[in-house]
Amino acid sequence: MAKLSLGSTFSIFHSRHIRPPLAGCHVTEMTVADHHPSLEVVGGARDRFLPSLHTNLRLPYNPFPLIAWNRHVETIFASFFRSIPQVRLRRECLRVKDGGSVALDWISGDHRRLPPDSPVLILLPGLTGGSQDSYVRHMLTKANGKGWRVVVFNSRGCGESPVTTPQFYSASFLGDTYEVVKHVGARYPEANLYAVGWSLGANILVRYLGKESHACPLSGAVSLCNPFNLVIADEDFHKGFNNVYDKALARALCKIFKKHALLFEDMGGEFNIPLAANAKSVRDFDEGLTRVSFGFKSVDDYYSNSSSCDSIKHVKRPLLCIQAENDPIAPSRAIPREDIEVCL
């Protein structure tokens, strides 16, 4: 199967919430007013890719009764009541160059059932997420049902991935992504590689696409609910009801950290291990551990230099970005619209 080398990006913005998601030429803006007054499509890939979505884009939008009236209700409802598809997974632990480890979860039996040139989809979950999460499972089973070979990239400590060095992953660190993509590509050299990322995973994915640019081995990618600008996302995290999400993610980070706390015993320098272990916010965790681990002077320095908004203009592979206008975690004002519109 021939490898794809198209380079286009377009984005879809919807005024309704889409929590669990291609950057390109001569971008124009279109609003589908007749049936989807809330749907906005921006991007030069519109004429290339949108014809295949023609029917779906013109279906009337019917919000879910009672739930869809509020973005926080939608988010919480999905977290507690979304079904979790049952699927058997086969785990592969990959040791990376610095001695760290990540876990790759493949659907059991696919290495025998699917031909070697079946397209491969790499899934990058959001912060603290992994192959156990419902949104990941739904994408995994849906793609697999279409004949795709799917693998979940569980970052260090996520999805029960082993932690073998005193370092977790971060928005700034692309080393593990490089090695995972290289490893998966070497295992299936006849297949086209694709990736989907959610939230922080989307931020990491877009940064990877921008860094690799023309040399990127992926044939295409999808970014879902990308915060894009982590400074802005952090500002909004501390406003009103968003504090609930901040505290929930902080608890999840602390839970992962405490499982591996012995690795961080006697860490000196600027590390503040008690702050990280008892973090009340994601920012606390990043102040105590993350920004020090990756050599940043401050949390704001870490957020500023780890944002994918600066990477969009360098992406040269088909990239679809799907955002919700009212997403409480990925603010609409952080979307790099100008860079999307000038991207070639």
Automatic annotation (TrEMBL):
Any single GO molecular-function term of the entry would be: short-chain carboxylesterase activity
InterPro entries in the record, alphabetically? Answer: AB_hydrolase_1, AB_hydrolase_4_CS, AB_hydrolase_4_sf, AB_hydrolase_fold, ABHD4
The residue ranges of the AB hydrolase-1 domain are: 119-335
Q: Which UniProt keywords apply?
A: Hydrolase, Serine esterase
The UniProt entry, under SUPFAM superfamilies, shows: alpha/beta-Hydrolases (SSF53474)
Task: Write out the similarity annotation.
Answer: Belongs to the AB hydrolase superfamily. AB hydrolase 4 family.
* Designated name of the protein: AB hydrolase-1 domain-containing protein
Instruction: Tell me what organism the protein belongs to.
Output: Gossypium raimondii
